[in-house]
Amino acid sequence: MSDNRAIGVFDSGLxxxxxxxxxxxxxxxxxxxxFGDTGRVPYGTRSRETIRKYALEDEAFLLxxxxxxxxxxxxxxxxxxxxxxxxxxxxxxEVVSHAAVMAAELTESGxxxxxGTAATVKSGKHESCIKRILPDARVTAVxxxxxxxLVEEGxxxxxxxxxxxxxxxxxxxIIDNECDTVILGCTHFPVLAGAIKAVAGDxxxxxxxxxxxxxxxKEYLCKNEMSADGGNKPQHKFFVxxxxxxxxxxxxxxxxxxxxGEDIKQVDLSSL
Length: 272
Hints:
Layout: E1 7-11, H1 17-26, E2 32-36, H2 48-64, E3 69-72, H3 75-80, E4 92-94, H4 96-106, E5 111-116, H5 118-123, H6 125-133, E6 138-143, H7 145-152, H8 161-176, E7 181-184, H9 193-200, E8 205-208, H10 209-223, E9 236-240, H11 245-255, E10 264-266
Parallel strand pairs: 1-2, 1-3, 2-9, 3-4, 5-6, 5-7, 7-8, 9-10
């Protein structure tokens, strides 16, 4: 059996495209519908109630597009509002637990850092997931809200003085506590990996939640006979809640492939 419907992915903005890029590498035969809530980014500074409201609306939009599963590529939603998936009629994947498992497997010292939004760090979900596997792990979590803004602005190169100084300030507790493994706990953050490595050093292992999640999704689709059969050319659709022009250039960089304005459509969630 197979299922040629698309995989639905949502995020607060551009960052979830780092998950999409890993899905494209791992599952090139799958179609994808992506929704980036660019009109309301960031989610990480919002209340839990507001984050849940946004997540429910994002999920409803994807269901309107007849997706076969939904992935929350938003670390904030995955941390504080994953319970919104309990009534979904399709499988749901979040990005926190898979990243935590990978970090627990790779750390040698048991000292693990987590970089996330304020809401993600406050939730403590990464730490609780890690400690279910490694009870004695020492987790250092740092809220890095400015990282989201930098990525949304297209500022993420490791030769940018602003990016490096921001990374230096955020990473100080991680370095001081001698973490050997760091979870990039927001899907905006993998594009800052070069800058983070430049500050933290090459010995620190960075965990990209997109890689961990794509692997888990592939295993699930195969096990449950839900993979696309490869008979049709995969279709990739991108939707945003704000004007798409500001999305195009950075989106192409995050995806590692060119997209144009015709590939992106603006939608109004209030009309659902």
